[in-house]
Each structure stands twice: as C-alpha cells, then as structure tokens.
Design a protein that fits this description.
This protein has 7 helices and 17 strands. It has 361 residues and is an alpha/beta fold. Helix 1 packs across helix 6 and helix 3 runs antiparallel to helix 4. The radius of gyration is 22 Å and the shape is globular.
Amino acid sequence: MVPDVKQKILVGLSGGVDSAVAASLLLEQGYTVEALFMKNWDEDDEDGYCPAEQDLADARAVAECLDIPLHTISFSSEYWNRVFRYFLDEYRAARTPNPDILCNQEIKFRAFLDHALAQGNDGIATGHYARIVGQTGRRRLLKGRDPNKDQSYFLYRLGQRALAHSRFPLGELAKSEVRGMAEKRGFLNSSKKDSTGICFIGERKFRDFLARYLPASPGDIVSTEGELLGRHQGLMFHTIGQRQGLGIGGLRKHSGEAWYVADKDLQTNRLSVAQGKNHPALFQLSLEANDLHWISGSAPTAPLTCSARIRYRQTDQACEIVELDEHRCRVQFATAQRAIAPGQAIVFYQGDECLGGGTIQ
C-alpha cells in the first residue's frame, strides 16, 4: 500500500535477511527509507569473537544494493543499564530471563524509536514477523501470518506509542517467501542463517559467557524425593525442564529414563531433578505472573477466558486469568503445563491478537 503522504522511515538493518527485505518492501511501497545499524555490545572477548563486524558488512552490502543511506549508532550504555543488568539480576536470583523481550522494549522500540523521531523520521521498521492494525490510540498487535516465525511473543511489552510509529513489512509473509525475495533482489545475505543468540550479543558458549559476570556457586543435585544424586556448578546454569548438562545420566541405581530439572531452590542452593520427561513434578495447572503489561494501555477484567504461551513457538494453550490486579495475575490452564520456568514470559492472546503478558513467578 502506497502511503498517502510520503513518509520517512528508518529501518533497523541488522545484517540479516529479514530486515533487508523489510527495507526493500518499504521502498517499493513508496516510503523514503534510510537504515540504521545498531552495535550495542562493546564488551571485548579474549577469543576475538565479534559477530557485529560481519553483520555490519552485510548491512552495508544491502544498503548499497538498495541505494539507501546506512547510519550506525551504539546504544551500548542503554543496553547495559536497561537490559543486561536485569539479565544478570534474574540469573543471580535463579530465574531464567528472556532478554529479547526487554531488548525489544528498551532498545529497538524505545532508544531506536526515540533516536529516529529526533532525527526527523516519521517512524521505524524492523524485520519482525508480526502485524499492526487499528487506528491511532487503539493499535492492536497481531500474530505474524507464518506460524513458524510469528514473533508477537517477543513484542508483548510494546505500547501504543511504539505501535503507532512502527512498521512490520514482513507480517503477512512466510519465511520462505522472504528468502525468495532476498534472492530475487540479489542480496548476498539471502541464505544467511537466522541468529539464535542473545539479543545484540550473539551466539556464545552460554555457560562460559555467564560465568564471566556471575560467580559460580556449586551445590547439591537431589531427586524430587530428596536423594542426593550429584553436584551442580551453579543454579544459574540450569532452567526448569532442562535435560542436558546435569552430569547424572550414568547413575546405575537409577538407570532408565533421563533426568530433568524440576525446581531450583535459591535458599538451599539445591537443584531438584525428576526422572522421566513426563514426571508429575514437571507439570503445573496454574501459575502467577507479575510485572504485567497490556498493549491497549489498560488491563482487561478478570475472569478472562483466553489463551497463552509460556515459551516461544509453543502452541496457544487455553486458560483463564482468574485473578488480576495492577501488579499480578493468577492463571489457570485447561491442561497442565510442562516446565513452567520462573523469569520467562507468559503472553496472552485472543485469536490472533496479542493482549499483553507478564513475568512468570
């Protein structure tokens, strides 16, 4: 759709295929487009690991192909103070945070958006797979059309201001279509694999990376019945439902099914594990969440029948928000949920619309 007035949009060009195609589509739709590459992680690595250098080179190649200006900026201070400190605090408290969600809220749709508007742009665009519909003051966030790439889960903390000034050109497309468009347009990154690492930090050996910032605190690994099974190197290295890396798979007395993390007790520094993927200790029918955010700007009224996800790419789970106030909610699921991890997000939906969410307690 050609805009009524030729608007100026600043695209966050990451060096990946998604943002490249997003920029191209906006040009074809008649927008005035410029691009911005954000390098927000300045910590040096002893092994010389620096994915940002290649990403910047890929972004430059795309910008040259599209004949659009490419600007660069660092929000490293904002990233450290608004995202990474929280990331470390959550792991220190034996929870499992989702930094991508806070990164979207604080960096891509706050620091980036503020910068773009201050530079005279009408809005920003990213390569997220999600959709924005509605009028000013009542924007709604919808799932992306491609169920395998829908990223609304990571965007639930956006508000009306961010949605009013944002564009998601890929929301109606499948990933396969996007790669085909990139190849057709001659982008050198058309086959570049998607990033799966920590937002702006990249793919790392996670245990080694985390140990650089938080001291390890070894403790006991016990069964759900209290039997001592081994030692862990730190609760921060484990999450609820985890199977790999426990180091207790060869116990003769308990040969058979694999072990899974069932609980983390910060007070005793104990890691509780259950044997078998479907052990009852791994399932819960309800949860509590706090730090709630509602995209419309106001909370719904409880009880509310809806659906929810407690992790990315999970299918929608039928549930009811049975209690709700300004700070917290209690959610009852229709079927017991496996591996509910404190610190992760629960995101609520009604059909394709993302209502908002909170942090699992």
